[in-house]
């Protein structure tokens, strides 16, 4: 599926192909919370890195690599790209998984496939969730809750839920 995205001021626009376009995992880690915005979590989807094309505004793109461990000064793997004009976060890329790019669902302008929030959305990295963020509690019927990483990849999730697009 071709996805098109942009920042809020529309100076940066991009497109890419994705086999896994459903926004299905809410990440509550401190990096996603702080780098994505005020919702207490981020929703990333996955696309094919070799198809990522910056259509407009390449000069407005900047990457930021967060500290995974501030005390040890250890960098995280992802480089998060954002618009320097309006600050919108657009996508993340990690050389360790170089075939993929992870656009933020909020930056995608193309209508995305819907998911059932109560039973299909995975809540991940809850061990670092801010105390003010509402999230399902352990034992919530049908909820998929993970203190750290989930029990499947984005690709596996899409295949299990018949949402993988060839």
From TrEMBL:
Family to which this protein belongs: Belongs to the Gfa family.
Highest taxon in the source lineage: Eukaryota
A Pfam family assignment: GFA
GO molecular function terms noted in the UniProt entry: carbon-sulfur lyase activity; metal ion binding
Identification of the protein by name: CENP-V/GFA domain-containing protein
Transmembrane segments: none
Species whose genome carries this gene: Thamnidium elegans
InterPro entries documented for this protein: CENP-V/GFA, Mss4-like_sf
Keywords: Lyase, Metal-binding, Zinc
Gene3D superfamilies: glutathione-dependent formaldehyde- activating enzyme (gfa)
Domain (CENP-V/GFA) ranges: 3-123
């Amino acid at each position: 599926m071709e996805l098109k995205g942009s920042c809020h001021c529309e100076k940066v626009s991009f497109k890419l192909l994705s086999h896994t376009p459903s926004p299905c995992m809410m990440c509550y880690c401190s990096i996603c919370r702080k780098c994505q915005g005020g919702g207490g979590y981020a929703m990333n989807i996955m696309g094919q890195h070799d198809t990522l094309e910056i259509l407009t505004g390449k000069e407005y793109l900047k990457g930021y690599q967060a500290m995974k461990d501030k005390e040890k000064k250890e960098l995280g793997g992802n480089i998060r790209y954002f618009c320097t004009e309006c600050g919108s976060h657009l996508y993340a890329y990690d050389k360790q998984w170089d075939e993929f790019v992870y656009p933020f669902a909020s930056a995608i302008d193309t209508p995305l496939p819907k998911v059932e929030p109560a039973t299909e959305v995975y809540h991940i990295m809850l061990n670092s969730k801010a105390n003010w963020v509402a999230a399902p509690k352990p034992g919530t019927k049908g909820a998929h809750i993970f203190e750290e990483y989930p029990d499947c990849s984005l690709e596996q999730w899409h295949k299990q839920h018949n949402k993988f697009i060839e």
